[in-house]
Amino acid sequence: MNKTQNSIHYRKQIQNMTLLFEVSQLLDKSLDLKEVITPVLQTISDSTSFNTLALTLIDENTGEIWVESSLGLPEKAAKKAVYKLGEGITGKVVESGESMIIPHIDNENDYLDKMDQRSRKKDDRSYICVPIKQGVNSLGTLGAGKIFTTESELDDDLKILTIIASLIARAAELRKRASEEKRLLTLENKRLHQELKEKFRPDNMIGNSQNMQEVFSLINQVSRSDATVLIRGESGTGKELVAHAIHYNSLRANKPFIRVNCAALPESVIESELFGHEKGSFTGAVATRKGRFEMADGGTIFLDEIGELSQMTQIKLLRVLQEREIERVGSMNTIKINVRVITATNRILEDEIKNGNFREDLYYRLNVFPIHIPPLRQRKTDILLLTDFFAEKYGKKNGKNIKRITSSSIDLFQSYHWPGNVRELENVIERAALVSTDEVIHAYNLPPSLQSAESTDTSLHTTLEEALESLEKELINDALKTARGNRASAARALGISERIMGLRVDKYMIRCTKFKKQELRN
User: Fold this and answer.
1) Which tens digit of pLDDT belongs to each residue from 167-215?
2) Where are the alpha helices (H) located in 398-463, listed in sequence order?
3) What integer is the mean pLDDT of 12-22?
4) How far apart are CA 350 and CA 54, in angstroms?
5) How far is Cα 331 from Cα 272, in angstroms, rounded to an integer?
6) pLDDT in tens, 377-386
7) Top-confidence range, 201-205, 227-231, 273-277, 468-472
8) Average pLDDT of the residues in 124-146
9) Which of 67, 268, 488, 498 is most buried, by CB atoms within 10 Å?
């Protein structure tokens, strides 16, 4: 090989390497193979002597091979060209997984010319078809046509096309995996969303009492609207559960549900958490950050413990409710938002307004549709339903099959005042299910705060007269001890006469001298 041939060979290698680099760069640009395959074919055409190119893919369902993208071929013919396995050059390459070189297509009977190459070109044309393979399976083919030069040059073209086909196959495999992962994530998202919808719909909120039926009715009335809801009730009554039920039965059910506990956020960060901040707006703001309102755009934001907000934050929240727009901390630009607002509080906001802790105008903005959740002590008929539900739930969680709750336990549940409401009941059942050893929740499995005198055998075992005498004797002893056995001094301390003191000392057979002896010892 002379210097001229070496130079040509070297330039050819550089050209091929540049081509492979450009193709790989194009394939990395998008996860959608359809978006990049036409630019890939154009790059191949620009860097080689191929003037017709076609990429075909096999339909996994029908087994037919169709043209995904082409270059230099009649568009109508390319769209109509469909091959079966083993049919024509394309079908044979897909079926065998082996490349084919056709030096002269006019002399090849297997070349079906479905894309009308013979009729368009009078020159002696060659055709190369390489499989696009994923393991042992053929995904399709990469076909290229050119004017015949030499068979050695066709062999070189085959090598470069084979490498490009492998790059396309690798890209197709990655995209297929990404697509499958996305499909599985979408299915999982739908499944979880359906579970949430089932979990938080009013039908699955436990309660048959009249109070809870009224709550369910209110939820049903307000869910399909965009009205601002204020959920009121004591801690542990299930205000967040009601907020979930409203969202997942609303027209925004497929959009985000963002929860914010206003009491859990320090005053210094709550504005940034709600409205977001720009990079550099304060120490530690190393990047621009979306706030909860932006995250909830199109969906629902649930502001729990709304009564804990400071006056300054209340003013900014009032503007959001009025204008439906926010400003990030450190920014002068307003951002329009489409968010439904649900709030909750266990405070009496009317009292907070009188005390100057809560803005009256904000209260009226929030109190568009109030829902009051009754405390558990006002819905005693629901206690048995709730205990059955929690017993089954935590029995399964702890690997136990709770079959029964004793009558004495139920009596304790019914007589207890439940200051912590449903949350306290849930915790009590969880503990009882954990300590139960015989698949039964007994009264002695319950915490001391629920126990009665009868259940613990701690009822009074004395009469009132005996208890008073015992107290009187203790007080007289204590007074004599302080007075060092001096009856007169002890009587004055107790506010009684010396005669009565003498009678009581005799009655209880108290020896005053022992207190004098104690003084001597001291």
Assistant:
1) 888 887 777 777 778 778 878 877 776 666 555 556 567 888 888 989 9
2) 407-415, 421-435, 453-456
3) 83
4) 75
5) 11
6) 999 999 999 9
7) 227-231
8) 89
9) 67
**Residue 310: what are its φ and ψ, rounded to 5°?**
-75, 165
- With 60 as the cut, is the pLDDT of residue 458 above it? no
Fold of 464-521: Arc Repressor Mutant, subunit A (1.10.10)
Token reading at 316: 């900014």
Of the candidate CATH numbers 3.60.130.10, 1.10.3720.10, 1.10.8.60, 3.40.50.300, the domain formed by 379-456 belongs to: 1.10.8.60
Return the residue matching tokens 């204590």.
478
Instruction: Report how far residue 10's alpha carbon sits from residue 17's, in angstroms, rounded to the nearest whole number.
Output: 11
**53 token code pair:** 């190119």
Residue 103 amino acid letter: P
Tell the burial category of 191 from Cβ atoms under 10 Å away from its Cβ (0-12, 13-18, 19+). Answer: exposed
Average pLDDT over every residue of 283-288? 78
CATH entry, 3-178, from 2.160.10.10, 3.30.450.40, 3.40.50.10300, 3.40.50.80: 3.30.450.40
For residue 109, the model assigns a pLDDT of 81
